[in-house]
Design brief:
By secondary structure, the chain is mainly alpha-helical. It has helices at residues 13-34, 37-69, 74-105, 109-118, 120-129, 131-150, 161-170, 176-191, 194-228, 236-257, 264-287, 290-293, 297-314, 322-365.
Length: 366
């Protein structure tokens, strides 16, 4: 994708359309379930709040997606931004919560759907009980994503130098990020008691193994495509990686949404609207080359990912409102953007000074 001069608002056209359709559906659901204007307005409001929650929690997701997408071929970019968003909206916001209930309650998918429609309180209870293993799994996967970015001996651009330079140098020790995550798993498992401790360890190890499996499978798939054609790199392997990454980001939003409403369909509408804005932001970041222009923006996103992973671990011990998580991530990204702008201004000032010195020297020689 290349910058084609499109205005910023034009990237969000489909997001605006989905927002309008989603809010109308939300209002209709409110009217159907309560038969009152107050009920309709309440559901309408909840859908709006859920959309904002999803955007705030997933802005770092958009940046990481853009980082991966910029190296993918146009064909696979298009596939991720079409099929990938369908999987993200319908798979993670509807199918995933249903699967949790299917596994936790030992019932069929149809029964789970009926339970969501007729007994939303029982459905929400089962979802909340499944929060611990979900937080352990998702937190571990996201922690590996964040640490792998910083533990990279080839990484040359550093935002917070005294931290990142040490991490880059330490990356020569193979498996250091895995050792760090395993140590943290042991710490948190000791803070939990009985069956909860065992559940946390098992789910966290599965999260670690999933990350490693995705890395291996993704590398093999992309390597085989590259062998067939040099232009085919950044294909199916990268696509799978992004889908699992999006799933890990979605865990927190899906579980947190049940604090606002127990209606699965309202949750799907609200989070689906938010997911469309994340998609639009991803396209804009790739198309406009924003990551190259603002050099520390990626760093802010990956720090936000690390914080989110630690928050997910901490949520196995105490409840942390999703608003805090979202604001924390957004603040970090905002600071990294501000640092990038300052860096660009400083570089331009130095360039202007250097240009003036050269012009002065040439004038003196003349």
């Amino acid at each position: 994708m290349t910058n084609n001069g499109k205005s910023t608002l034009s990237y969000f056209t489909w997001a605006f359309i989905v927002t309008a359709i989603g809010l109308v559906l939300g209002g209709w659901l409110g009217w159907q379930s309560t038969g009152t204007l107050a009920g309709m307005a309440s559901v309408f409001f909840i859908c709006t709040v859920l959309a904002v929650l999803e955007i705030s929690l997933s802005f770092d997701n958009a940046i990481v997606n853009a980082n991966k997408l910029k190296d993918m071929t146009p064909v696979w970019q298009h596939r991720f931004l079409t099929w990938g968003i369908i999987i993200a909206v319908f798979g993670m916001r509807i199918v995933f919560p249903l699967l949790i209930v299917v596994i936790a309650a030992g019932i069929g998918p149809v029964d789970a759907l009926v339970l969501a429609a007729r007994e939303p309180q029982e459905y929400a209870r089962i979802m909340n009980e499944a929060h611990l293993p979900i937080a352990a799994f998702g937190g571990t996967f996201l922690m590996m994503v964040g640490l792998t970015y910083f533990f990279n001996h080839e990484k040359e651009v550093h935002w917070i130098g005294f931290i990142e330079k040490h991490m880059a140098r330490s990356a020569t020790v193979k498996g250091i990020e895995i050792a760090f995550v395993l140590a943290l798993i042991l710490v948190f498992s000791n803070l939990l008691e009985g069956e909860a401790s065992n559940t946390f360890v098992h789910a966290a190890v599965y999260g670690l193994l999933t990350f490693l499996a995705v890395e291996v499978v993704g590398g093999l798939l992309d390597a085989s495509q590259k062998a067939m054609s040099e232009a085919a790199k950044g294909g199916l392997g990268a696509f799978i990686y992004l889908e699992v990454l999006d799933a890990s980001f979605s865990f927190d939003g899906v579980i947190g949404a049940f604090a606002l409403t127990q209606n699965l369909f309202v949750i799907a509408i609200g989070l689906g609207i938010g997911a469309m804005y994340v998609r639009s932001m991803t396209i804009m970041l790739v198309d406009k080359g924003t990551l190259a222009e603002y050099r520390y923006l990626e760093h802010g996103a990956f720090y936000a990912i690390l914080i989110l992973s630690v928050v997910m671990y901490c949520q196995t011990l105490v409840h942390i409102p999703e608003v805090i998580t979202g604001l924390g991530g957004a603040t970090l990204i905002g600071i990294s953007l501000w640092s990038s702008i300052r860096h660009n201004r400083r570089e331009r000032t130095l360039g202007d000074h250097a240009g003036n010195r050269v012009a002065t020297q040439l004038g003196e020689k003349a």
